[in-house]
Amino acid sequence: MNLYEFEGKEIFSKFGIAIPKSILLRREDNVIKKYNQLGIKDVVLKAQVLSGKRGKNSGILFASNIEEVKLAVEKIFESNIRGQYVCGVLMEEKLNIAAEHYLSITYDTNKKQPVLIYSESGGMDIEEVDEDKIKKVWLDIRQENIDLDIPYANELWQCFLKTDARVMEINPLVKITDEKWIAADAKIAIDDDAFFRHQDWIFEPRTMLGRLPTDREIQVKKIDEGENYYRGTAGKYIEMDGDIAVLFSGGGASIANMDALFQVGLKPANYTEYSGNPPREKVTQLAKIVLSKPGLRGLWIAGGVANFTDIAATFSGIIDALDEVKPAYPIVIRRAGPNEIEGKRLMEECAKRNNLNLKIFGKEIAMGATATALVDMINKK
Fold it and tell me: Where are the domains of the chain?
């Protein structure tokens, strides 16, 4: 989960990283009251979105009086900043900047260990900084502390370790005086699967697309919550604008299947996947929510050859939903793995008793090729 800047700064401050004096504005807030409450004349107004490049997209504005503040806040809330939902405006003190540095800790999936990245050239164009001006320090998660001549290096390391983070970034890390440094921005991505370890994690709803979640997205997320969080995964769902419902399994295969769907001229109504051998009841909940979207023209259930996922059990969950919904649109299934013969038998019985327009394939045909079969079935209707 990506955090908003104001959320990230709240976390930074708990670990001794200095942040600017600030106050968060919501759409319904009294701007004059908030400005007076902050008590600072020169301020910066920053759109709270989940994407970067705000400065180049009118998402960061400056003001020196209440009229300028009101105009800036109104402009930001009315803006479309890279297609992102603006959840708030962070009003901060304007800093007297002596220098802008860059500091981050992220997890390198190739080396399978964290790496600290530091540069004395920070700010909006950090991507263009020469490699020889960037310092990288590989870290070991068994290290309780790190001793580097870099401002806030150890504080950021503590923050990274204790918040189950994937990314911690301060850009820019601003030098105010020789002795004082401030995190002028905060980018944090946390591990969604670590929520059970952090009872204090109460974040407002958001999606990977930078918009508010739909009702279906909220419902699906609840499937993996609670004491059954460890029993497989069925709570991943992103609602989209198309009319082909999908139920995928396997992360890499799921992405490839989305590409295959577009290549044959179909548009997905959602992106979702289940994995890790989830129990029947979880798959049923997911399938019901996927099938509840109005205007569907087809259903594609696809996945690779499973190693340990019980095909019959997960198919039974989907069948529970099909028995209830009884969709009239075409359905194509491609799946294989443990208990696949029994799973196919159960699915064929479901199709017969509900008079479903359904075709089922195994590993003898590539996943992407079955998208073509779905197109043919839709065109024959």
Answer: 21-93, 99-197, 215-380
CA atoms within 13 A of residue 367's CA, in its CB half-sphere: 24
SS3 9: helix
* Predicted confidence (pLDDT) at residue 230 exceeds the cutoff of 70: no
Tokens 């400065």, residue located: 55
User: Which residues is 333 bridged to in the sheet?
Assistant: 301, 360
CATH topology of domain 21-93: Dna Ligase; domain 1 (3.30.1490)
3-class secondary-structure state, position 120: coil
State the Cα–Cα distance between residues 316 and 304, nearest whole angstrom. Answer: 18
**Per the structure block, which two tokens stand in for 147?**
């001793």
- Whether 373 has a pLDDT exceeding 90, the answer reads yes
Run of H or E including 303: strand 298-305
Percentage of residues of the chain with pLDDT beyond 70: 96
The arithmetic mean of pLDDT across residues 304-316, rounded, is 90
Q: Which CATH code for domain 215-380?
A: 3.40.50.261
Task: Look at residue 227 in the predicted model and tell me its pLDDT.
Answer: 65
CATH class, range 99-197: alpha beta
Closest CA to 319 of 296, 336, 337, 342: 342
Tokens 């870099």 — which residue?
Answer: 150
